[in-house]
Amino acid sequence: MNAKTLTCKVAGVGAWGANFENWHDLQALLCGQPLPDKPQKGPKPAIIPANERRRAPLPVRLAVESSWQAVQHAQVEPASLTNVFVSGLGDTDLTDYMCKVLASENKELSPTKFHNSVHNAAAGYWTISTNTMTAANSVAGYQESVSLALFEAMVQCEAEGVPMLVTFYDAPVSEVLKPLLENTHAFAFSLVLFPSVSDHGMAISATIREAIAPEWPTLSAQSDYLQSLYTSNPCARVLSLAEMLMQQNAKHDAITMPLSEQTTISFERVQP
Amino acid sequence: MGIDIIDYESCSAAGVNLAQLRSSLAQHKSGLVKNCLTGSDIDTWIGKVADVDAINDLKEWQSRNNALAALGLEQGSILNNVSALIKKYGAARVGIVMGSSTSSIDRTETAYQALDEAGGLTTAFKQPLVHNPHAPSLFVAHYTGVKGPSLTINTACSSSAKVFVTAARWLNLGVVDAVLVGGVDTLCLSVLHGFNSLQLLSANPCMPFDHNRDGINLGEASGFAILQRSGDNANRTGIQLTGYGESSDAYHMSHPHPEGLGAKLSMTQALERAALKASDIDYINLHGTSSRANDLIEGGLVSELFPKTTQCSSTKAWMGHTLGAAGITEAIICMDVLLTSLMPGSMNLAQLDDAIDFSIQAENLTKNCTHVMTNSFGFGGNNCTLLFSKER
């Protein structure tokens, strides 16, 4: 059987959701801390210039907020990172806006909303706000968005020998598509990955194997909110990896995710 | 890096398959027609693939985008070659990387025109695997039986150029033994009315790099190529992917960088990776959308970077700007120059823009070429350059 192992180091983490505003708060929730009294509305990432931020759609603000946190956590220049952005569902609010206008008599679209509707809007706003001229990939993997984006980022990290930013984000689904795509939660999570030769960061490995795809791993955290987030938001499936990354968490030192119909990807913390 | 191109096929208004595309290119036969898309009254020209209209048996996978992907996969020897590779390596050792900008939003638009009284989706449109941005890869995996990693790249108009780069990395690291790469994008109201809102559409057939160009024409296309590590398959085209560049403009969501800094990075990276000089490049298939801004900026850069011995053209007057499918459509035209020695001219070019100082003309030329390059630039300032060479 062919198995291939990729390695890298996790040097920075960023996270944002309605009940946590950074990786520190998310870890507390994953450890069983109660939810805050009141959920927050969307993030307002300061790195996007104010005039642009007003026009930036929620998925973009989610992605940029957690990306900025991860970059600061890793203490790197954003422009030094090569980027992979993933959303499993896209911007369904803008899809809804465009499809409603286009189903009506007057089909005039807002030019700003149209250019914001591209799937790589988050990558665009991020590279513009941080003056990043490296490659920015924007990908989709529906229910496998998390495993595919981690795979793509670790492949790029190893093949090109460059530090990476990988950001996972999905916003609540608009009313018409909700019965199909389900998600009602805003969520974003980012990792800064260094090539494994680097002195910094937590070493992890990813092994790709041929096997019938398993179910997604069970999330240890039991709160209704986290369980609902984990099952309905395709990008929140990264929470299983987040639990593995938590320093104090010894329960998961390896997890296996479905990568495709007949391949799996297993992540492990590599002991120094 | 050593990546062999095993096979390729193209489906656009300029020809439903590669054989027809070659004949259209040779005869300067454009596929552009006056806008006839149902529900759209915009005064422009489009590159529509008429044969897609008849494909309506895809059941839960039905969308115009998936139909165009299916039509493309049925051309030439692509499906046979994918089946042979699955048999040889196993379905899990073959990957898919698809590029698209619209995915299947055509179907979502249609669904919204047919909502029930309560404003909900009607039965025929309850298609979760279609109404999401990963739809092209999900469908192509279903259609071909590929069961290895399959990823969709959605970086607007550079999408299906970047698929070659991602596939090359997967192959070089040995996570798969073959990759089916593709691009598919269909004409729909979102793109026609969206580009119209940006005042980028022309009411005339587009004329890239012409002094009097006044905008773009949109088109639809699907294209596929099979990639393997060098030497793994004796049955191959003799063409290799030898270089690539990927960059960001860091400038604006829908305007290119005024000095083309990002585009310059992607072209110079591709040359460096292939260890070639600008003077080694025989032919460049330019992004050349026929918009005032793109052609001026790309034209200026190519004038600065490449000598007059490098022949250039934009082929968008044959099938229009096929957005997320443009990268692979033009990669195929570019690769095919290495096989046919026919360098397509820049159709509709009458009076060259004064700011342009590189070798370009309307007529086709014949030359035995060794190295060719193609540019794709997308919204969000997303750039990709591919470099293909004849196998030594």
From TrEMBL, chain A:
Coiled coil residues, start to end: none
Residue ranges of domain Beta-ketoacyl synthase-like N-terminal in the record: 39-203
InterPro entries: Ketoacyl_synth_N, Thiolase-like
Pfam family, one: Ketoacyl-synt_2
GO molecular function: acyltransferase activity
Gene3D superfamilies registered for this protein in UniProt: 3.40.47.10
Entry protein name: Beta-ketoacyl synthase-like N-terminal domain-containing protein
Lineage, highest ranks first: Bacteria, Pseudomonadati, Pseudomonadota, Gammaproteobacteria, Alteromonadales
TrEMBL record, chain B:
Gene3D superfamilies: 3.40.47.10
Keyword Transmembrane: no
GO biological process terms on file: fatty acid biosynthetic process
SMART domains referenced in this protein's UniProt entry, alphabetically: PKS_KS
Protein origin, superkingdom: Bacteria
Annotated pathway: Lipid metabolism; fatty acid biosynthesis
Pfam families per record: ketoacyl-synt, Ketoacyl-synt_C
Gene Ontology cellular component annotations, sorted alphabetically: cytosol
Keywords: Transferase
NCBIfam families xref list: PRK09185.1
Annotated protein name in UniProt: Beta-ketoacyl-ACP synthase
Organism the protein comes from: Alteromonas sediminis
